[in-house]
Design a protein that fits this description.
There is one protein chain. With about 475 residues, the protein is an alpha/beta fold. It has one domain: Alpha-Beta Complex (Spore Coat Polysaccharide Biosynthesis Protein SpsA, Chain A), CATH 3.90.550. Helices cover about 55% and strands about 10% of the residues. The protein has 16 helices and 10 strands. An 8-stranded mixed beta sheet has the order 3-2-1-4-7-6-8-5, sandwiched between helices. Helix 6 crosses helix 13, helix 9 packs across helix 10 and helix 12 packs antiparallel against helix 13. The chain starts with a helix and ends in an 18-residue tail after the last helix.
């Protein structure tokens, strides 16, 4: 039994080492926050884009997103809007069609194939046929709202040779409550620290579904084969293995509604965790091995990003089980409640800064010094660095800053549960809340009132006398 315990001890130390190494790389990115992202030169000419919106029963938010696209500062003759009405049972398809979008309706009887990946696999060939001149796709979700300059900035990247790109992810509802604020700040943090550092170092980016750009030439050559629950990460790694890396376009801003309840945030992380945990073994390890052949650091970087999936599982399951086992073994071997004996037998004494602490005291100090304080400090730094884009007073986001470490806890728990369960893809619950700072930003950029009432927009376009403004979509495309 002593040998078995020794093996467990060595294994535990190895796991601690892996966790520490993975976080150390993230710390490096944080330390170079002052290094600017690589500049993207203005485009010499404008290219043709297909804006693709995947929607499943989204009539509560889709009209607002589509209406905002009418204010895009890009020539209307150079982009088309396509809506994939995926297994919809509401008026999503009818509303999108009346607003001018090219609507692709999909009804899939197999529940396992009802996700965004399969929807894109079905729709992209149809779009290529209907819009044969398209040069690049921009894909986003029904609750995403693109800044009016978004296509201009993505066009700069594409014209400069980028075939894959991601933008700056913002939130529409940071001030709705603490949950939405914490989630929104987390994605802003990811862009400001991780994406900017990768851009400065010339490392490939991890694509995210909302607002990602990919060249039509890639789809013509490879097709769309990514049908997992995390199709954006899967696409990123598939393309990276084919020597195509994504760039970061910091001025291409896409806004997204963040979950406003702990339950919704947890469910989203479960779905994400389920897909990403599988991808670690199917794609992450492949990138790791490929790195040693090609020595392309982007492959190793994406492996480290994916490594957080098994790390989350280990943190949630391994450490509690390991120390509970040692405690049970201590008593089963005749141990007593004596504090010194209990901590010694269970390996609970740790020397920290020359002071001997039991494991609970040690964990408490580590959580404070290495987790709670650093994450709150990161949130403060994010606000200081990007306060103009965040667009609201420090006091309004202070509750979210203080509770910022909460996201990592919910993230780890969601990832771990998603890894060992089979969460289903469902329509997200929409709060339909827009920060006043977001509304002011959009109105300043467009010079027009921001229309936030989805029901009113839908009713207007479904009426016998619809507004004259329409999206460039169905009328400009080849019809079947």
């Amino acid at each position: 039994m002593a040998v078995f315990n020794e093996v467990l001890t060595v294994l535990n130390q190895a796991i601690i080492g892996i966790v520490s190494f993975a976080f150390a790389v993230q710390i490096i990115y944080l330390l170079i926050f002052f290094v600017p992202a690589r500049k993207i030169a203005p485009a010499k000419r404008k290219h043709k884009f297909a804006v693709v919106v995947s929607a499943h029963n989204e009539e509560a938010v889709l009209p607002v997103a589509l209406k905002s696209l009418m204010h895009m500062k890009y020539p209307k003759e150079l982009f088309r809007v396509f809506v994939i009405a995926d297994n919809c049972t509401d008026r999503t398809a009818e509303i999108a069609r009346r607003m001018g979008a090219y609507v692709i309706e999909r009804q899939e009887p197999d529940p396992k194939k009802r996700n965004v990946g399969y929807a894109l696999q079905y729709a992209l060939p149809i779009i290529l046929e209907a819009y044969p001149d398209v040069e690049a796709f921009v894909r986003f979700d029904a609750d995403n709202i693109l800044h009016p300059d978004y296509l201009l900035r993505m066009n700069d990247a594409y014209d400069g040779g980028a075939v894959l790109a991601r933008g700056y992810n913002h939130a529409t509802n940071i001030t709705q409550n603490v949950i939405a604020g914490v989630s929104g700040l987390w994605y802003i943090r990811d862009c400001r620290f991780n994406c900017q550092a990768r851009s400065a170092l010339g490392i490939g980016q991890m694509m995210v579904g909302g607002g990602m750009m990919f060249a039509a030439s890639l789809i013509r050559e490879y097709g769309w084969t990514e049908t997992g629950m995390s199709e954006d990460a899967e696409f990123t790694m598939d393309m990276l293995l084919k020597k195509h890396k994504a760039v970061y376009v910091k001025d291409a801003i896409v806004y997204e509604e963040q979950p406003s309840t702990l339950t919704d945030l947890f469910k989203r992380n479960c779905r994400m965790g389920h897909g990403l945990f599988k991808l670690f073994f199917t794609h992450g390890l492949k990138c790791f091995l490929k790195f040693f052949v090609s020595l392309r650091y982007s492959l190793f970087d994406v492996f480290l990003s994916m490594l957080f999936m098994p790390i989350a599982v280990l943190c949630v399951f391994w450490f509690p089980v390991y120390y509970i086992y040692l405690t049970i073994y201590h008593f089963a071997s005749g141990g007593t409640w004596d504090r010194f004996a209990l901590c010694t037998d269970c390996g609970f004494f740790v020397t920290f800064a020359g002071i001997q602490l039991n494991v609970l005291e040690f964990i408490g100090w580590i959580l404070l010094i290495a987790f709670i304080v650093p994450f709150i400090a990161q949130a403060v730094l994010v606000y200081v660095l990007d306060y103009k884009r965040i667009g609201m007073s420090f006091w309004k986001v202070l509750p979210s800053i203080i509770t910022f470490p909460l996201f990592m806890v919910v993230y780890a728990l969601g990832i771990a549960l998603g890894a060992v369960s089979e969460p289903k893809w469902k329509s997200a619950r929409r709060s339909v809340y827009y920060d006043e700072s977001f509304v002011k930003t959009m109105e300043k950029a467009t010079g027009a009132p921001f229309e936030r009432d989805a029901k009113a927009i839908a009713a207007a376009y479904l009426s016998d006398d619809p507004p004259p403004d329409r999206l460039p979509g169905a009328e400009e495309c080849h019809t079947e």
